[in-house]
Amino acid sequence: MTFQSLFISSNGISLWASLNPTLKSLCSAIPLPFQLPVQLAPQQAGRLRLDKVAAIYTMYPQVDLAKMDRETLTLLGSACCAMLTLHFTLQLLSQHLFYWKNPKEQKAIVIIILMAPFYAVNSFIGLLDIQGSKPFFTFLDSLKECYEALVIAKFMALMYSYLNISLSKNIVPDGIKGRVIHHSFPISLFMPHTIRLEHHTLQLLKYWTWQFVIIRPVCSILIIILQLLGMYTTWISWTSTIILNISVSMAMYALVIFYHVFAKELAPHKPLAKFMCIKGIVFFCFWQGTALEVLAAVGVIQSHHFWLDVEHIQEAIQNILVILEMVVFSVFQQYAYSVEPYIGTDMAKTKKND
User: Does Membrane show up as a keyword for this record (predicted)?
Assistant: First the structure.
């Protein structure tokens, strides 16, 4: 042979030459998505242009966890956790789509169970761009909180559906009319301590959940605009925080009141487990974020990188914790939002026809 070809294909590196066995096994393990023909002269066959092979191997190294730095391992672990969350959620989602028996209920369930992967992917994006600006992180947090607002409203709609309540059609079962609702402090300062359950009362509870769906996006848009313009002052930050806390508290209060009044009727639907899936995600995200802020303020969280400040490290830790927690919640959702009730409905209809 006067010329011997080194041909790199999508299946790996194939050598048509008298190669050293060790180098041949090394080259065959390097997959590449393109073709690169290299012609080697006889006198070069012994050396095989090791500089080119070394360059290719540097571009496509084999995975060795022991040699990875902490940043790469963190990203790899976070990616695996996010994929696990997606796996468990898509598994449950596919089950509901296969047994699509009650669209009114299952549409709400689909939106609720997508909360965990939404948070996981959102946090992973924040982890990828760890040096992002303050408006960027605010935007990511706002997306999560806006979706949280939608989930709270859909959860209330799901509870209404379980009790066959339809406010648009003015349908309220007689068995639940006239029940007594006891408002606690501080709501009792603005409303009667005891009221009777009527169509108007149910509509008010619905408004209390949906107001957060409106207020949260509006505040987020205003905050991001003011940050980009450099006008986001401390007093504006405190004002927006107070407004949002009051808004989300009203939405959560409406859910708690509704569950307290109808705990017996809702018991077969596992409302507490369903509610804890939502409340747990919100609770952990909020309070661990607050704890990290305190730890950063007292100097426990410090930056040892000149290109990263403490605030960015705090955001990274928060994102990692959220990604890990979403795996747990995606597994718990398998129980709380199980497809079994809809499988049972299908089997009952089959037996009835038989």
Answer: yes
Q: Give the fold, CATH level 3, of 70-339.
A: Rhopdopsin 7-helix transmembrane proteins (1.20.1070)
pLDDT one-digit tens code per residue, 167-186 = 777 777 767 777 777 777 77
Residue 128 CA to residue 312 CA, distance in Å, equals 12
pTM, full prediction: 0.70
Give the other-Cβ count within 10 Å of 330's Cβ: 26
pLDDT tens-digit series, residues 68-93: 667 778 888 899 999 999 999 999 99
Q: Collapsing DSSP states into helix, strand and coil, what is residue 171? A: strand
β strands within the chain, DSSP E: 4-9, 12-16, 36-40, 180-182, 194-196
Question: Which residue ranges make up each domain of the chain?
Answer: 4-59, 70-339
Cα dihedral: 190, 195, 200, 206 (round 10): 70
Give me the amino acid identity at 265. E
- Pairing state of beta strands 180-182 and 194-196? antiparallel
Q: What is the pLDDT of residues 92-106, one digit of tens each?
A: 999 999 999 999 899
